[in-house]
Amino acid sequence: MRKSKLITFNKWQDYYYKLKNQILESHHIRSALTSLFNHINNHISFDFDPIFIIQFKIKIDTNQIRSISFVQTVKFSEFNDLLLIFIEFWNIKDITYFSLKPSDIIFTYKILGKEPYGDLIKKSKLNRMRSIKKNSNFYFKGYNLPCTMDYSKWGKIISECDTFAIVKKVNSSLIYHIKITNRELRVEVKFKDKTILEFTDILLEKGKLNSFIRTIKKQEYIFIDGKLIVKKVKKETKFLQPIFHQESISRDFLTMDLETRTIDGVMTPYSISICDGEDTTSFYLSDFKTANEMLKSAIISIMKPKYHDYKVFIHNFSYFDGIFLLRILSELTDIVIKPIIRDGRIINLKFSFSILKYKFNLYFRDSYLLLPFSLKELAFNFDVTAKGIFPYKFVNNKNLSLDYIGKIPEYEYFDNLSLQDYNQYCEGFKKESWDLRKETIKYCNQDVITLYLVMDKFQKKIFTLFRIDVLKYPTLSSLSFAIYRSGYLKNFKIPLIEGNLFTDIKKGYSGGMVDVYKPFPDKGVKIYRYDVNSLYPSVMKNDNMPVGDPIYFEGDISLISIGTGYDLITNPFGFFEVEVTAPKSIRIPLLQTRIETENGIRTVAPLGTWKGTYFSEEINNAIKYGYKFKIIRGYLFEKQKIFSEFVDYIYKLKVNSKRGTPDYIISKLLLNSLYGRFGMNPEMENHIITSEKDSLLIINKKIVTNIIDLKNGKELISFFDSQDWDQEKAKKSLNISVPIAAAVTAAARIYMAKFKTMKDIELFYTDTDSIDINKPLPSQYVGEELGQMKLEHIFNEVIFLAPKVYGGKTDSYEYVKIKGLKNPITFDEMKPLLFKNQKVEINQEKWYRNISSGNINIKQEIYTLMINNFKRKLIYNDQNKFIDTIPLYLNGDKLD
């Protein structure tokens, strides 16, 4: 056990409880929390029962820290309650966490003293895991009504004629008043003279009074032979609304760039430049006492009324530069900062400040989220002044003066530079010494000028094409979404799905299938790698999408579909929860599902039986290959081709543009960015940076999920407004329609299924939009058109070790891809990994972003590469060599 530092009031502290990289169990949590409380008791004597704020975290073997619980506010005397909450949070984590074997339990805590904040929080506030309904079925009212249209069986007939009847319900004071037509009964159920219920029965088949549809308000009940088969209810939703084209574009933006160096494994900035389109300003560390002072001066230089509401673009701000700037920005204003953060990336940061009682704003954005290419590539594609040349590694010497003037740094200090270009660079310094300050500022200035010119051209091009201002949209997906809404939404009724509907349909939203089927071919057999030309845009153009108000149903609607004799539903279209039985003989299963394995949640394509939620078209496709389904419940939609015009226009732009030009780049980006925006997760945390005092008010009122102490009197707090997830989602309208996103990915899997099931072709590996096979595809499938295949590689040798881990050799080059590895190994180094338990250990850099300290730590860590494919069963020969795979087998959602 490692003790924390000396305990003080009103300060955030971390307490580490050492584990032995073992599986974490409840008794470890108890021991760790007991140790913390004993530690506090040993250092402080209380004359009151203090409130303290605490969060349970773990440190795993990769030095990453993961939050386990929400932030809790408890009195010191409430040890047992706190322990139960922490154990509850651990127990509800998925199996992935249980296999982590953490090195430490960490408690991040703050003890509130009587002064100065003791009165802000006076009572405990235990935040349990947010309530998410396990079963989100809609409630159908359980009316006790007869299951037949033969009203003589409803009770005692009081009066009757051809068009009307009155029937007294058995053992009840209720009276049925029935209007009779040829195939229909309109019924009022009355108590005395008051109507308490109305319903309509419509006969399905002449002479069969036990087969009918009963409608009560918005609900339908379908009876066949006296049995209730299906219940339906229409769920009214809002629809996606169009937006107007812009009449002009704003020119209000700046660009900024930071240059960094790494000393003793810690990366910090040492130069910064800013461009407003007319002037470029630079700041250099040797002119300041600290990097923080330099950064403050740079930010202060743009805190001017003339820059009010300007966007400040920094390439890779969301993941890199923002780490250095967040603390600095918080120190330059007393106004709350509300960054929008998703998946650990800062999407937009509104920075407000006051001058003479007037409020002004700056918005920090990441240009990489709009143009996800390196600045060097963008300079080339947009035909603007290129980035300069600079020896990044040279400045990492802690003994080097930042005012160094002398010999040009050696070639080894430059990255991605040919020797010829280096020699040419040196030619420029024959008559003068190389000046680090001058060259850094020159290089940094060029970066911000290049980025400004790129953003300027990008903004003008988007406006010319679509009459949309890029400055209004922080990400590529939001920009593509705005383009669609402004020009292509038309009158399509795209439903906005929230709350329970989102929870249900989201279960049917999964990505492409990535699997190894066979690790290598026989000697001498070539492997052909084909990629689909714009897979997702292709299915978006050609396939129907779910539109209109969803109709929720319970029961097997296949019993009333075409071919049953009733034909009440023509080609049911939507998302259905089903019981699946896969054919035993299929080598390459077509339906995937999520399962728990000892190594966490995995998406697999198994054999056997299970329950899942699927798009109706994917169900229909699977039936062709022997799958069987029993429908339990689901959502029916209308269908329309809603993306055809959008895809046609942008794809035509791509086809008619020269590769690498702005039009080509823009069309390629927009084509692939739209569908995912519809499936965005609505469970969004709020984030604010505020004072320690005000943070206590938030802790007291909100569900706080994380707190980062910025060590300057400010804290970055993440929280939900509500304990109930459904309430949280319902109050936010994010223009989300997960059925669209789920239908697109399902349609893509259907498209790929035809290549996986081709006769006389052996499939070795597949990714979302690619296949690796043992012979060329028939010519009709190959070409340059949207959705056609294009041949990418012909491998003479190839190895597929796991999803996203493979390599091969062609006649002219070697190709290796390993997910998560910065510097892939050679193809020959991969070969030993085909044998069981063999591994390759690679030393590589890993970056740890420290928002609290405003820096990035770089550590050398071992990356271990070995076969660990949990998606199919691996087959080894007598020499323990990996030679084949077969599907996993599920039996009622459990692996056999």
Characterise this structure.
- This protein has 896 residues and is α+β, with helices and mostly antiparallel strands.
- A hairpin with a 2-residue loop joins strand 37 (797-802) and strand 38.
- It has four domains: 13-129 and 685-730, no CATH class; 151-228, no CATH class; 253-472, 2-Layer Sandwich (Nucleotidyltransferase, domain 5); 515-642 and 739-895, no CATH class.
What layout of secondary structure does this protein have?
Elements: E1 13-18, H1 26-43, E2 51-59, E3 65-67, E4 72-75, H2 79-91, H3 95-98, E5 104-111, E6 155-160, E7 164-169, E8 174-180, E9 184-191, E10 194-203, E11 212-216, E12 219-224, E13 227-234, E14 253-263, E15 266-275, E16 280-284, H4 291-300, E17 310-314, H5 317-331, E18 338-342, E19 345-355, E20 358-366, H6 375-381, E21 405-406, H7 419-427, E22 434-435, H8 436-466, H9 476-487, H10 499-506, E23 515-516, E24 527-532, H11 535-542, E25 545-555, E26 574-581, E27 593-597, E28 600-604, E29 607-615, H12 616-623, E30 628-640, H13 644-655, H14 662-671, H15 674-678, E31 686-691, H16 692-701, E32 703-709, E33 714-720, H17 725-730, H18 738-756, E34 763-767, E35 770-773, E36 789-795, E37 797-802, E38 805-809, E39 814-818, H19 827-830, E40 840-850, E41 855-865, E42 872-876, E43 882-887, E44 889-891, E45 894-895
Parallel strand pairs: 14-17, 17-20, 29-44
Antiparallel strand pairs: 1-5, 2-3, 2-4, 2-5, 6-7, 7-8, 8-9, 9-10, 10-11, 11-12, 12-13, 13-25, 14-15, 15-16, 15-41, 18-19, 19-20, 21-22, 23-34, 24-35, 24-36, 25-30, 26-29, 26-30, 27-28, 31-33, 32-33, 34-35, 37-38, 38-39, 40-41, 42-43, 44-45
Helix pairs in contact: 1-2, 4-5, 11-13, 11-18, 13-14
InterPro entries: DNA-dir_DNA_pol_B (IPR006172), DNA-dir_DNA_pol_B_mt/vir (IPR004868), DNA-dir_DNA_pol_B_mt_lin_plsmd (IPR015833), DNA/RNA_pol_sf (IPR043502), DNA_pol_palm_dom_sf (IPR023211), RNaseH-like_sf (IPR012337), RNaseH_sf (IPR036397)
Pfam family, one: DNA_pol_B_2
Domain DNA-directed DNA polymerase family B mitochondria/virus: 303-757
